[in-house]
Amino acid sequence: MAFTAPPDDAVKYVESLVWLPYHYVAGDYRAVYLRALKDKRILGSRCDKTGKVFVPPVINSPESFAPCSEIVEVSDCGTITTFCIVNIPVIGRNLELPYVAASVVLDGADIPIFALIQECRPEEVHMGMRVEAVWKPDGERQGDHEDILHFRPTSRPRSGEWPRPL
Amino acid sequence: MAQLRNVAIVGFAQLPVVARDEHRTATEMLYPAVRQALEQCGVGRDDIDYQIAGSTDYMDGRPFGFVAALESMGSWPPREDLHLEMDGIFCAYYAWLRMQAGYCDTALVVAHGKVSEGEPRRVSNLQMDPYYHAPLGIDATASSALQASMFMARTGVSDRDLARVAARNRKHGASNPDNQLRSAVSAEELQNTPFVVEPLRAGYLPPVGETATCLILAAEGKAERLCDRPVWIHGVEHRSELQTLGARDLSRSAGAKLASEKALAMAGLDRADQVDFAELAATNPAEEMVLCEALGLDPFGTRPVLNPSGGPLCADPIMSTGLIRLGEAFRQLSGRAGERAVSGAERALVHGQQGHCLQTNIVWICGTKRRWS
Amino acid sequence: MRRPVAVVGVGQTHHASRRSDVSIAGLVREAVDRALLDAGLEHKDIDAVIIGKAPDMLEGVAQPEQYLVGAVGAHLKPMLRVHTAGSVGASTAITAATHVASGLYNRVLTVAFEKQSEGNTMWALSPNLPFTPPLVAGAGGYFAPYCREYIARSKAPLHIGPLTMVYARENGARNEYAHLREPVTIEQVMDTPMLWDPIRFGETCPASDGAVAMILASEELARKGPRKPAWIKAGYTFAEAMWVPNRDQVSPKAGQMCARKVYEAAGITEPWKEIDTAELYVPFSWFQAMWLENLGFCPEGEGWKAIDRGDTRFGGKLPIDPSGGVLCTNPIGASGMLRLAEAALQVMGRAGAHQVEGAKTALGHAYGGGAQYFAMWIVSSEL
């Protein structure tokens, strides 16, 4: 019988590389949202009780506890409510530093989304700034969150006609 | 035993257990369950004082997986809230305890777990201590097989006996529309299925399944208004044991025995067989027999009826498996069990567990009448 | 049935970025042993164990409480495992207090821990989940926009964040268990790199290994103890949904409601006057000013003024985080319980070099999630 030699140093660690595969379900509400990105459309869902619009769509309003059964389209243009300027890299994405991560309420929506702001200097970004989505070119969009490359400053005025029922 | 507050189960809802729900995320599955349970009680979300959720991050495959459950539970305005990294049946315990302390009169108890998204057997391996057990690759099926072998060696229980216990569960489970397995299968057929880990055969183990569950508890005074036939808690106790497989006699469940003795004493009973039926969260027939021995139940007897729902063999949605046992006691004792109703049932024993080889056990005694007058 | 509950023993580990001298179980045991020793008790005196920690992925063990049953002495005892994100340490202790308040348990051990060095925190907290754009770099990336919003609303001068850190480090230097114990100057903080503008590296909490434990007991048993207990006057946990239109993340409603509830239960009407010191959960320096307003110590927009006046400094009118707080020590799952335990030590008069003179009533506070989970208790030297 072969024995391995005892370790020279005291054993201090057990190395364990955890490998756990997961197969996440998007859910119908998130799936309809992602598919619409392919057509340069941003969808939300409207609360049956209060009429408020959630983006991305959710199945119920936590506020009224009513279902949000109606899928509606909102603008790809919105307003920055607050933001920060990030100087450290984010896992899973190769972004030039610094970059601006902002909370943006799209026209027609009642809750903000987190958005990357580009095409301006970070110090130009301010609360209340109008921004619009910059989409991947036609034919390259896959129906995932990378279809919106980022948001950039715009002079487009707040839209009055949103949200639009589908 | 000092006099406690009478607390009752007044509502329970679950989604039918399925191998994989392709249409909803874990917490989206919760929303219809919470709605249904509230509708049963005829109340709105604001009428419930307290909320508590059970889930585990490793099943969800993300840290803080439970945070999204706040949306499905209608957490606005802000609610008094807690989350346990445990099966929902332990959450029900804490809600009951808060009522004993007088902090609340009504509570929403939920459990969720999208088991199909990950690999539960790998996750069960990661529950073991990271230095000695986990590197051996032991998962919950392997540790259960160790337990089964020890139990069979000590007691002389045969493969045939295991098949009979499994067949009884499958027979009962055939009439439960929420089950994942809904067909009766004979002991012969089950005994002919291949070993997964010897001595446990494929026919003795539940398939991977998922659901979301919601139970509503209410204290006396409120309970009668929320439910025409509240199911009262007579006693409850839980106990944990060392995980180390070599440090305890796996063929016995000292924790289940102690928890049941305490729960029975609280209920004013001497023996477990004084109930009409028992719902046991054992996930294979050998484990069920270890549990029966600890509780003093006859796995082949006719009364108490064991697992009228079919038990975890027919549906084992991790994190909800225990809470469903409590929900089944409610359905049985409040006249909502349909064709699987146990005739004349007035009292039930309910068991929940987590960990490997019955490491942590909880035992409840419930009845149709108030415990304390 | 509700009855008085007291803290009769407190124990914590020395906190460091890597406690390679102990296993996970060894770390937890260190805190448990100290708490038992402090209370003059043994494992056999304990009726139940309530354990808490933040995401299991930090250490790579699923539901590690099952493996830790032996280390915490819970064999054949009831044990529950709590997880409420960053607030977990505090909600764990409050869960334990409920056990004693119910009359069903007389002495309960509660323990919380994190051994961040065992795994990869950035990985554990930022999994690459599909369907969500990876954009938020860690907790700082999530919370920095709300610090900015606070600054904009309150018109706070920009030195308030760094000044808060200066005071925290002064306090940490007096706390023998703290992870970061070197004082810093405002210039030193200002000179550190801006990670998530407006949050500088020097204004963030460290990542620590550590654990803390407490023994809670009924009135009768507390009075038999070797020393004066800390009486728990009130303890509550609240949570709110994330996606609520117009939800205010600068001053979350769940925090306001939880504070109102504990004050009401503890009979406090003017927190600034009636509370002698507070241990607030401040992972990024600006949150101290934000919480002073959220918890009703200062009117809206004026939390920063209390810091600027030096009122929150050790020796000031209302010393905040005399232990150095989360800014000096952050074993995530234990951080909330450390706030509650430090509040208890203050009213017991046993906080050592960071004792606030004459402290009779103290607040312990923690929060978690996207500023969604809140847990607080008020402790007092008198029942």
Question: What's a concise summary of this model?
Answer:
The complex is a heterotrimer of chains A (about 170), B (about 375) and C (about 375). Chain B is an alpha/beta fold and about 375 residues long.
In words, what does this structure look like?
The complex is a heterotrimer of chains A (166), B (373) and C (383). Chain A has 166 residues and is mainly beta. Chain A has one helix at residues 28-37; strands at residues 42-46, 53-54, 70-74, 77-86, 99-106, 113-117, 130-135, 148-153, 164-165. Helices cover 6% and strands 30% of the residues of chain A. The longest helix of chain A is centred in the N-terminal third of the chain and has 10 residues, at 28-37. In chain A, 37% of the residues are buried. Chain B contains 12 helices and 12 strands. In chain B, β5 (195-197) and β6 form a beta hairpin. Chain C has 383 residues and is an alpha/beta fold. In chain C, a hairpin with a 1-residue loop joins β5 and β6. Classes of the chains: A mainly beta (166), B alpha/beta (373), C alpha/beta (383). Chains in contact: A-B, A-C, B-C.
Strand order of the largest sheet of chain A: 6-5-4-7-8
Taking the sheet with the most strands of chain A, its summary is: 5 strands, antiparallel
Structural class call of chain A reads mainly beta
Number of alpha- plus pi-helical segments of chain A: 1
Largest sheet of chain C: 9 strands, mixed
Shape of chain A: globular
Average pLDDT level of chain C: 95
How far apart the termini of chain C lie comes to 17 Å
Helix count of chain C? 13
How big a fraction of the residues of chain C is strand? Answer: 15-25%
Give the end-to-end Cα distance of chain A, rounded to a whole number of Å: 74 Å
Mean pLDDT of chain A, rounded to whole units?
90
**Uncertain residue segments of chain C:** none
Cα shape of chain C: globular
Give the fraction of residues assigned to helices of chain C: 25-40%
Helix content of chain A: under 10%
The succession of helices and strands of chain A, N to C, reads HEEEEEEEEE
Tell me which oligomeric state these chains represent. Answer: heterotrimer
Chains forming the largest contact: B-C, 63 and 65 residues
Backbone CA Rg of chain A: 22 Å
